[in-house]
Each structure stands twice: as structure tokens, then as C-alpha cells.
Specification:
The chain has about 100 residues and is an alpha+beta fold. The chain contains 5 helices and 3 strands. The chain has a single domain, classed as Arc Repressor Mutant, subunit A. A hairpin with a 2-residue loop joins strand 2 (about 60-65) and strand 3 (about 70-75).
Length: about 100
């Protein structure tokens, strides 16, 4: 995973509400936008904003079935993130000084 993509995913997950959304969606396997909205004391536009950031970062995937949008965690991306972190913190960064 490229550094810029990794940073984008980590920034999306850094917000406590978004992090909790991802946890709730992962636990359920798949939720509709409405179901996610019912879990949080946030307005619908705020929920949509958070979900859009997570989708744009690649953390969540959306499938449409009729008028419903079903959201799930992209587990492949999450595994890439988990696998990408240890090597980045164990090897020195070349070409940079502190």
C-alpha cells in the first residue's frame, strides 16, 4: 500500500465517530445507511458526510439493491493497512533527517 493511501485511510479512521461507525459496520457485516444513522445521535447529513469520507478512503464499500445502499467494511483494505504499518515503523526512512 502506498504511503499516501495509507495516510488517507488512517485519517479517515482517526475521527472517533468514524472509527466507531467502522466497528459497528464490521460487527454487523453489512448495514444500510439508515441502520447506521439509527446507531448515532447525529443528523442524517452528518452521517452521510462521515460515510462518504470512509468510502472515499476505501475503508467502506457500498452496494446498491433497489433504493437501499448496503455498507460493509472492505476487509482487504483493512488487512493491507494492518500489514503496512509494522514495516514502516521498523525501518529507517531514507533521505530524511529528523
Amino acid at each position: 500500500m502506498q504511503d499516501d493511501r495509507l495516510v488517507r485511510v488512517l485519517k479517515a479512521l482517526a475521527d472517533p465517530k468514524r472509527f466507531r461507525m467502522v466497528r459497528e459496520i464490521a460487527a454487523a457485516g453489512e448495514l444500510t445507511c439508515g441502520q447506521v444513522g439509527q446507531m448515532f445521535d447525529l443528523s442524517q447529513p452528518t452521517i452521510s458526510h462521515h460515510l462518504k469520507l470512509l468510502v472515499d478512503a476505501g475503508v467502506l464499500t457500498v452496494r446498491q439493491d433497489g433504493q437501499n445502499h448496503f455498507i460493509s467494511v472492505d476487509r482487504k483494505v483493512m488487512k493491507e493497512v494492518v500489514g503496512a504499518l509494522p514495516p514502516r515503523f521498523s525501518a529507517p526512512v531514507r533521505g530524511r533527517r529528523a
